[in-house]
UniProtKB/TrEMBL annotation:
Protein encoded by which gene: glyA
Residues the record lists as N6-(pyridoxal phosphate)lysine modifications: 222
Serine hydroxymethyltransferase-like domain mapped to chain residues: 2-391
A Pfam family it matches: SHMT
Family label: Belongs to the SHMT family.
Pathway: Amino-acid biosynthesis; glycine biosynthesis; glycine from L-serine: step 1/1; One-carbon metabolism; tetrahydrofolate interconversion
Binding site for (6S)-5,6,7,8-tetrahydrofolate: 113, 117-119, 361-363
Protein name: Serine hydroxymethyltransferase
Amino acid sequence: MQRDTIVFDLIRKELERQRHGIELIASENFTSLQVMQAMGNVMTNKYAEGYPGRRYYGGCEIVDQTEQLAIDRLKQIFNIEYANVQPHSGAQANAAVALACLQPGDDILGLDLSMGGHLTHGSAANYSGKLYKAHFYGVKKEDGRVDYEMLEAKAREIKPKMIICGASAYSRDWDYARIRKVADEIGALVMADIAHPAGLIAKGLLNDPFDHCHIVTSTTHKTLRGPRGGIIMMRKDFENPFGLTDNKGNIRLMSNLIDLAVFPGIQGGPLEHVIAAKAIAFGEILSDEYTQYAKQVQTNAQAMAKAFMEKDYQIISGGTDNHLMLIDLRNKNISGKKAEQVLVQADITANKNMVPYDDRSAFVTSGIRFGVAAITTRGMHAEHMQFIVNAIDNVLMNADDAALINKVKSQVNEFMGQFVLYPEMG
Ligand SMILES: Cc1ncc(COP(=O)(O)O)c(C=O)c1O
């Protein structure tokens, strides 16, 4: 077969883009070389419907071992009893939990998308808002923090079958114990989606959701720094108290129901090559080096937030506990959309984001979200945050000055030259 130079040239260009720019998209990171290498391996050729030791295909003895290793390492990271490593993505993980726990028309309660929540937590545009009756809590206008009183009031009024916590654009820690308390009062399940802060939770730098939330989902490619994918976890398995059944009407352990919901519920054959890469990433997370990384992420985020606030940028909630921050740009007279566009011209990548109580649409927005997981992997420390904040401020305050933006771009490219990305790739 002739080598497809068109696609490989594009891949090379993407490598150069990643090398030269400052990556501040909060949901992105740079995997290690070995994680990437594992994703391009012969296990992509293998069909393995089912789970280790109970597959629907022959020849699964080897992929059984990589999948079991991924499961065992993930259990060790979070000190948990149950893990499913097959979801192809975070959205798939959430869909599987919903399929296992809910019936169409059931009430669910999640953080509003416009307040930092995720599409899969009940958005009208998503299956979760189409199949289930979605209700939302928000963040308080005064301090940008989750409005737990509102959450409790809505929970008592609606009595949802499931309360979902976790977010895509929320910089503060969660009070999981408080959510569980009201859930127990009304007989609801609690699902925590820790897609964003999972890496910091893994190292005890944020509250532990596992003791309080029945089920925890995550992506593997954000702070966890693994391949693109999803996972579902429980600290303790349980015979579900809500009479949830499999398709034969049998009440089963929650772990059985979740396994069945992933396959055959919403997915077919697992991506065993990606699961091999997950196993490698989980091994890396167990190392001291990753512990240092997670601490540095938190330090860098706080240093960046401080530098922004010194320049009078309005960070929602006034700071950050995790790896990200959401900035309300209204006092800077620039929309999120325009900010995203001009920053890209200076090789700084971030994404526009609605801020709580935004008066602009999701396509324009008044905010921008920054995260430091990727730049910390590049090797940056707290002292580098000032350069980045200065560069961003320079671009945003001179958004129509093409010459100046071009100058910032050169400075950014030179700055990034210090932080070599994938040197092995030449
Ligand atoms: C909180 C949360 N959950 C789920 C997802 C979905 O993950 P994926 O894009 O892998 O489907 C995201 C992605 O950004 C997220 O932020």
